[in-house]
TrEMBL record:
Gene: LOC100775839
Annotated family: Belongs to the metallophosphoesterase superfamily. Purple acid phosphatase family.
Protein name: Purple acid phosphatase
UniProt domain Purple acid phosphatase Fn3-like: residue ranges: 4-68
Organism the protein comes from: Glycine max (Soybean)
Keywords: Glycoprotein, Hydrolase, Secreted, Signal, Zinc
Domain Calcineurin-like phosphoesterase as annotated: residue spans: 183-395
InterPro entries: Calcineurin-like_PHP (IPR004843), Fn3_PAP (IPR040974), Metallo-depent_PP-like (IPR029052), MPP_PAP (IPR041792), PAPs_C (IPR025733), PAPs_N (IPR015914), Purple_acid_Pase-like_N (IPR008963)
Length: 488
């Protein structure tokens, strides 16, 4: 109520008790505004006093229903392979019957329908939010594949049905095929969602709204072919309705271009669930909502690692939350995938995951050192050019780095841009890009010699890859470009 000037000045006064013809007790009324999205179930507004520590119920509204709880919503695109000729669309509805995508010049494809239940959530001796008070029915998740497309081309589509309604007509672009000459992509981690009202949530990511608006501007300017969101996706962490809010937030971007993801600790980790890190970070979700909402081109459920080629880049995307130790299934897959890359076809090899190998922030778990010991030699062996991680909520870039030692330093070009010599390969460049929304982490005063650039601002990484150059820049809030660098 503190934001309502009529309440603060008591312009809407009402007398509740009179004594001797005079008002003895009066009240002041005001108004609150809430931003809600269609979560397919009735909503009540409950007024408490006493704060979070000693809440006391004062009043509650009558239930409010959505006009169309079966409406198809939050459609988002992803690539299924490296051809650029097929795109998957995934959306949410309150209706379990198959719906359709109408796209191109009269093509139609029916959706496959799935969902998940409270029984699919993880828990322990202490009930998890996902299994208990954070549960919300996700409705039905629809997914369908648009085929017969052309890479690097623009098409239109709509999704839904005659009985639940249709989305608006949306234009989307396919990514360039693997092996073609050029790719423009955006990458970031740790976005989440920003409330559009004065709500207090268990997790608030204050930078998410400004970052997604900036990315949407890039997409609307036709400057982006695809997006890679590398872990800590929605931060729902067991409060399932928050996935709907996140899908609503990214819709202006994810409905237009391929939105690829990697799994993070806040999607997967839980006690006794098989995750590498024994933490309750997913709130009991254990990767189930993530894999349902964001079907990536993986080999099987709960094996969320994959590779894809777009333009001149081969992307190897791993899960830092699943076993990566030597001779594990994921390790052997990574080894085989990177060894198979044809550098004549895709000269650039980019490795992505969530938890970083290198950061000047403290507080890392011992397992993360083991991750570096196990996987880092594969990066050098296969001449990985660029390594991108999130998890730490800032931006940090290294020299050409291996085993905590700079193997080469970038030179300044005529414009003062750090330029790494990719032709005389020495080691990968690492960058932490977890600055897309969550409250920012400050840097330690103990700066490592391998840390060349550090920015604690909200933003994302923008990349432009040709066959000869990989040019990158960090775009921070208000579109001020703070850091450029190239690998040539």
């Amino acid at each position: 109520m503190k934001n309502d000037p009529n309440y603060l000045s008591c312009k809407k006064k009402e007398c509740k008790t009179f004594q001797n013809g005079k008002c003895a007790v009066s009240t002041c009324s005001g108004s609150l505004q809430f931003h809600v999205v269609n979560i397919r179930s009735d909503i009540e507004f409950v007024f408490f006093s006493g704060g979070f520590v000693e809440p006391c119920l004062v009043g509650r509204s009558t239930p409010v229903s959505f006009a169309n709880p079966k409406r198809p919503l939050y459609g988002h695109l992803s690539s299924i392979d490296s051809t650029g000729t097929s795109m998957r669309l995934t959306w949410v509805s309150g209706d379990k019957e198959p719906q359709q995508i109408q796209y191109g010049n009269g093509k139609t494809v029916a959706s496959a329908v799935t969902t998940f239940s409270q029984d699919d959530m993880c828990s322990s001796a202490l009930p998890s939010p996902a299994k208990d008070f954070g549960w919300h029915d996700p409705g039905y998740i629809h997914s369908a594949l648009m085929t017969g497309l052309k890479p690097s081309s623009t098409f239109s589509y709509r999704y839904g049905s005659g009985w639940v309604g249709w989305s608006e007509q949306i234009k989307f672009s396919t990514p360039p095929a693997g092996g073609s000459d050029e790719l423009r992509f955006i990458a970031f981690g740790d976005m989440g969602k920003t409330p559009l009202d004065a709500s207090e949530e268990h997790y608030i990511q204050p930078g998410a709204l400004s970052v997604i608006k900036a990315i949407a501007n890039d997409v609307n300017s036709n400057n982006v072919n695809s997006v890679f969101h590398i872990g800590d996706i929605s931060y729902a962490t067991g409060f399932l309705a928050e996935w709907d809010y996140f899908l609503h937030l990214i819709n202006p971007v994810a409905s237009r271009i391929s939105y690829m993801t990697a799994i993070g600790n806040h999607e997967r980790d839980y006690i006794d669930s098989g995750s590498v890190y024994v933490t309750p970070d997913s709130g009991g979700e254990c990767g189930v909502p993530y894999e349902t909402y964001f079907p990536m081109p993986t080999s099987a459920k709960d094996k969320p690692w994959y590779s894809i080629e777009q333009g001149s880049v081969h992307f190897t995307v791993i899960s830092t939350e699943h076993d990566w130790s030597e001779n594990s299934e994921q390790y052997e897959w990574v080894q085989k995938d990177m060894a198979s890359v044809n550098r004549q076809k895709t000269p650039w090899l980019i490795f992505m995951g969530h938890r970083p190998m290198y950061t000047t922030n403290h507080g890392f778990l011992p397992s993360e050192n083991k991750f570096m010991e196990a996987v880092e030699p594969l990066l050098l062996e296969n001449k990985v050019d660029l390594v991108l991680f999130g998890h730490v909520h800032n931006y940090e870039r290294t020299c050409s780095l291996f085993q905590n030692e700079c193997k080469a330093m970038p030179a300044k070009d005529k414009n003062g841009v750090d330029t790494y010599d990719g032709r005389n390969y020495s080691a990968p460049v690492h960058a932490v890009i977890g600055m897309a929304g969550f409250t920012l982490d400050k840097f330690s005063s103990n700066v490592k010699s391998w840390s060349l650039k550090r920015i604690s601002e909200f933003g994302y990484l923008r990349a432009h890859a040709t066959r000869n150059d990989l040019n990158l820049e960090v775009s921070v809030y208000m579109l001020m470009f703070q850091s450029h660098y190239s690998i040539r």
